[in-house]
Amino acid sequence: MEQLFIPDLNEQVDSNRMRSYPLLRYMGSKYKLIPWIYETFSSLEFESALDAFSGSGVVSFLLKSMNKKVYSNDFLHFSSVISKAVIENNVDQLDENDLESLLNMDGHADDFIQRTFDKVFYDKDDLVFLDKVSHNIRCLSSPYKQALAYTALFRSCLKKQPRGVFTISGNLDKYNDGRRDLQLSMESHFIEQVAAYNATVFDNGKKNASFNGNVFDFSEKLYKPDLVYMDPPYVPSSDDNCYTKRYHFLEGLSKYWVGEEIMENTKVKKIKKKFTPFSYRKTAIEAFDQMFGKFAQSTLVLSYSSNAYPDLETLAAIMKNHKTNIEVRTKPHKYHFGNHSTVSRSKVSEFLIIGRE
Ligand SMILES: C[S@@+](CC[C@H](N)C(=O)[O-])C[C@H]1O[C@@H](n2cnc3c(N)ncnc32)[C@H](O)[C@@H]1O
């Protein structure tokens, strides 16, 4: 089983709990860097934290496991559904009755997924299952159970997509290396993932919350997080690191495409990408300055890497405009995913830039 390698951390966090967090293949995920990020967090004093770009939710889960009050935010809806399930939700799990109705209730589901994604992603049986289970999820009474079921479904979809992204479609036989994840039906994956995510639900005694919005719209004056962790996207060297482009199917699925317009002329039936100023050279520097200013009352922790723009010196100088003490911690890191060009390019240094009073 894929497991997070976490050496036994000290008494501030339950290492076994951290290890149980399901690995989601998510671009830029800090999953493998969790022990290092943990070291930094445990050296800082704070009770509440905002994970401003939560993605796969793994850093929020670390913070929750450290018994902090956690606010998770991402502008992608599916990502905020994950944090609703595993961060905000302190209690609800899917029991046998829930699973029974999710799998077997025949509530005259719509056939949108079958019609739209025929010969694009997955086989007919899987598409029929996705329509049915989507309908049944929305019939669950608790919003937390709904979020948990969706989260299990997202991971099922990622596992059955050969490269874990939705940029490739059609006949994907050439990627079929016989691995179990590609053989299993979507329904069998879903059953396994419900168990995996049920195991992540725990109560840390705090009123945690999940938000689905632009980082610049977060109400810092209302929530006053002691610490803000920022892991924004990087300015890409090519067009292939857009989150909507890679995960549009999960974003659509998380709301059954309600309110999203499919770009019919695209082969993979994409939805429109969301603008973020962090992805463009023209707007990135201004965006960092604005973000650090917005959260200037909190301790700032920024994740960044040596192959990104702007460079470390520039970022540290921008943070210095808003905080007195700037400290940089460095770790060599090799990305295994999200950078499939040359080996040397995937060797980067990871930085944590910390800003304090
Ligand atoms: C590098 S990923 C975060 C990965 C995350 N720390 C993890 O370990 O899984 C960047 C995230 O920022 C989100 N994002 C990009 N621009 C945003 C914005 N302006 N406001 C909020 N979220 C944004 C993306 O949807 C993506 O999930």
Which keywords apply here?
single chain, about 350 residues, alpha/beta, 14 helices, globular, binds S-adenosylmethionine
Question: How confident is the prediction overall: mean pLDDT?
Answer: 91
Question: How many E-type strands?
Answer: 7
Bound molecules: S-adenosylmethionine
Query: In total, how many domains does the architecture comprise?
Result: 1
Q: What is the ordering of alpha helices and beta strands?
A: HHEHEHHHHHHHEHEHHEHEE
Q: Which structural category fits the helices and strands?
A: alpha/beta
How many separate helices?
A: 14
**Biggest sheet descriptor:** 7 strands, mixed
What percent of residues are in strands?
5-15%
Enumerate the strands of the largest sheet in spatial order, edge to edge or round the barrel: 3-2-1-4-5-7-6
| Shape designation | globular
C-alpha termini separation? 43 Å
Radius of gyration: 20 Å
- Enumerate the spans where pLDDT stays under 50 for 5 or more consecutive residues: 339-345
Q: What level of helicity do the residues show?
A: 25-40%
